[in-house]
Amino acid sequence: MTGETLFDAGERAAAERIAPLAVRMRPRTLDEVVGQQHLLGPNAPLRRLIEGDAPLSIFLWGPPGTGKTTLAMLIARSTQRRFRELSAVTAGVKDVRAVVDEAKRALGETGAQTVLFVDEVHRFSKTQQDALLPSVENRWVTLVAATTENPFFSVISPLLSRSLLLTLEPLTDDDVRTVVRRALADPERGLGGRVTLAEDAEEHLVRLSGGDARRSLTALEAAAGAADHITLELLEQAVDKAAVRYDRDGDQHYDVISAFIKSIRGSDVDAAMHYFARMVEAGEDPRFIARRLVVSASEDIGMADPSALQSAVAAAQALELIGMPEARINLAQAVIHLAMAPKSNAVYAAVDAALADVRAGRTGSVPPYLRDSHYPGAKKIGHGNAYRYPHDFPGRVVAQQYAPDPVVGREYYSPSDLGVERVVGERLAGLREVLRGARRVVPEDAASGFRPRCTPAPPTAEELANPDEQEQKEQPSC
Fold first, then answer.
1. Of 167, 190, 215, which residue is a domain's last?
2. Do residue 321 and residue 437 come from a single domain?
3. Residue 236 and residue 408: Cα distance in Å, rounded?
4. Does 159 lie in the same domain as 13?
5. Using an 8 Å Cβ cutoff, are 437 and 459 in contact?
């Protein structure tokens, strides 16, 4: 379950001759690491930690292929510490304790410190994580734990609070391209210039990686075993995956996302799923897709199905919680929900209409009785006077002007007759009538879901000037 990975020169050379390309090209120094400059740049936290040789345990949280194992090895190598590795998939409490006991002996006998790297630590049970606590707290080992899942949900808080949490970002296209070109050229560990890569094949390889350097090197090695010049067709055969014509910075990016949103708007669930799969397969940033779904839920559906926004937001949160590729299922569920939901752009039209009035200068003063009255002297200048508290009236609504004079009577929100908005529209019509004094609410109206059935006269000016007396006045029956 454990293994010493700091070889002498001869052992390292022998191992690297048979190791996969991704392993051979693993950086040996911090300066060889591609990406993660927010952690490794000058004065960045991880560089300070390594160069300062501080015995501080850390959690590395990030997607696959972003360098978590590499960084753990570099910490051990740069600080001249012993390195031990456990996989949370196969290790148990007994294995954890054995490594810790060995580290304690080495520390006591020779003063040698040990870096314990635990891969996929989120798979450790609470008991297994508890077994790590004493060694971290007493600094018998420097724990470097890697996880692809949110540690706030998967790691016990006592262990997390005793460690530094560092978040790794997916590699950019340029980062992956650098890794690929370095592997092609490196004479010692890479392909030494013996293999060339066509430009379109390189672009496909970068897209295939999805920000995962290990995936790109594995695919490159598979293709390099078939020919010295790797064409797009050869790469497609080697990795058994057709190239998706998709440029994340060009026309395809904008064309496909446009078709995706318009398919949802047009309620074509099958077309929407096609474009979604096309983006996922091409390596589009899933957070970009999630953001567009959240926008579409309000822009194209809105109150016709209020749960559509909940579905889109939940999918975006699931993406952050569990990551890809599993989160593709959550995103797909949101796509299907939004495509099949009744459509309305009434919310979108309402906010733009209100903004247009504000930008045109139709603002006006806030009515005095609506102004803040929670300070001494407010009543003396009329602030809050004659305000009618809706909770004191049947149906919790009462005739009263809320809007400033320039926009009184303006109706920004016009519900459609589809889905939930059909009911919303009926309620809105009744609310507007009561607010404008055309109707008053009686108790039966409130109990029936607020659908006014009588139309007594609106309140008089005297009633409006004396709201306290109006509150005591018996409501008319109809």
1. 167
2. no
3. 64
4. yes
5. yes
**Could you give the CA distance from residue 402 to residue 282 in angstroms, rounded to a whole number?**
51
Whether 41 and 156 map to the same domain: the answer is yes
- What size, in residues, is the chain? 478
**Cα separation of 435 and 443, whole Å?**
16
Cα(390)–Cα(472) distance, integer angstroms: 14
Residues 375 and 326 in one domain: no
Q: Which residue reads 């020169």 in tokens?
A: 9
Of the candidate ranges 43-52, 356-365, 389-398, the one whose mean pLDDT is the lowest = 43-52
- pLDDT per position as a tens digit, 291-338: 999 999 999 999 999 999 999 999 999 999 888 889 999 999 999 999
Residues 275 and 300 in one domain: yes
The CB-based long-range contact list for 155-160 (8 Å cut-off, 24+ gap) reads 155/59, 155/121, 155/122, 155/129, 156/126, 156/129, 156/130, 158/133, 159/129, 159/132, 159/133, 160/59
The stretches of 225-268 forming alpha helices (DSSP H) are 232-239, 251-265
H/E run at residue 359? helix 346-359
Q: Which residue range(s) make up the domain with 262?
A: 251-340
On whether both 374 and 313 belong to a single domain, the answer is: no
- The answer to whether position 212 is within a domain reads yes
> Residue 176 class from Cβ within 10 Å (0-12 exposed, 13-18 middle, 19+ buried)?
buried
Q: What is the pLDDT of residues 104-140, one digit of tens each?
A: 998 888 888 888 888 888 888 888 888 888 888 888 8
Same domain, 464 and 445: yes
Rounded CA separation 295/186 (Å)? 46
Please, what's the largest Cα pairwise distance for the chain? 100
Report the alpha-carbon distance of residue 469 to residue 478 in Å, rounded.
22
* In contact, 399 and 452? CB cutoff 8 Å: no
CATH number at residue 255: 1.20.272.10
Task: Say which residue, 358 or 253, is predicted with more confidence.
Answer: 358
Quote the tokens at residue 281.
């397969």
Domain count, the chain: 4
d(CA 205, CA 232): 9
Closest residue by Cα to residue 137 from 115, 162, 156, 161 = 162
pTM value? 0.51
Rounded CA-CA distance 350/409 in Å is 14
**Final residue of a structural domain among 167, 188, 219:** 167
Q: E-assigned strands of 283-389?
A: none
Model confidence over 230-245: pLDDT tens digits? 888 888 777 765 445 5
Give the tens place of pLDDT for each residue, 370-413: 888 877 777 777 787 888 888 988 888 888 888 888 998 889 99
